[in-house]
Task: structure prediction
Amino acid sequence: MQQEIKPTGPVQAILTLPGSKSFTHRALIAAALADGDSLLTHALRAEDTELTAQALMQLGAGLAWQDALVVVQGVRGRWRTPEEPIFLGNSGTSMRFLTAVAALADGPVTLTGAPRLCQRPMGELLAALRDLGARAESTSHHDCPPVVVGGGLRGGRTRLSGATSSQYLSALLLVGPLAPQGVAVEVTGELVSRPYVDITLEVMGSFGISHYREGYRFFEVPGGQSYQAREYVIEADASSASYFWAAAALTGGRVTVANLTTESAQGDIDFLAVLARLGCQISSTDEGLTVMGGPLSGIEVDMANMPDMAPTLGVLAAFAQGETRITGVAHLKHKESDRLAAVARELGKMGIAAAETSDGLLIQGGQPRGAAIDTYQDHRIAMSFAVAGLKASGTVINDPECVAKSFPDFWEYFGRLL
Result:
């Protein structure tokens, strides 16, 4: 199946977007581990979050969805051991978080997924869980899923490299309060995607969990704590908002997202500052966060704290005057697709000089032509290149349904721009 994108003039829209995928994952887990029933409002119901929810139900939690509301019946930190393996599709977040969370079960829990997920590294997280007393091993013999975890999680101290994934750290923090000795983690090197750790700690705090930290080098969650059931409202997804702001940037239009503020802990909110450097005007009012587009100029920017935005910036860079250099995102090679290779290859189809570097992309702006864009079963490639079609006539997105991973209603919202 294909989705053809029609070029348009300046777009104009005020949008209220679905809830944050990052907050939804974490809130589902915290609520499932809590004592009592929680109500999550404005939760994102997408493929990835559904996979997390289904896994939590296999482990014994109760979940009932109704549109953007979900009631979660917590298990007080006491999982049952499921009889069948937990299948997590292509959701790396689900796999990493639930590998640690399932270690709270008494018996062995097997977690597996789609072929691409079973190519993504897990060795460092498994080693850290073993440091903390849990059984944690890969059955693939190359430290990728399937994995078997469960039993013996006592807590203690461990170390993680900051270079691979902040999700390893978030996973350990989530189980810390339920480990008898708590969890203390020393991070070596620079931690990538730091804002996602802030989101984890914000959600944990909202569900009654305390922690201690020293910047992004050391984290400690005392044991003997309990997640507390509560009502919790989830803010809009800043990653999803970026595609509509990018549409304003590219077409010289104006797009407002009503249910986000600059106070958000989501790292992708800083994409607004990147758009300002490209040449856009940004405003924050009672109406929401607004981007007004203008002539775009190339920039050099470290995207380590908002790596999911690199494909979106790559598309805008193709239309900007001059050269754009994106750095700090070497780990994008291990996402749902090799996102660096994918962006460079698809921009090349559009007649744009784009090359991978050791930690990012180098893109020479020009006049992209339309092309049939392959999406590599990667939602972010599909949504980023949809924006390109607003200016490049003849752009077609292959496998447009892959957006269901994080934003099932993307094409409906995108249609409101036209």
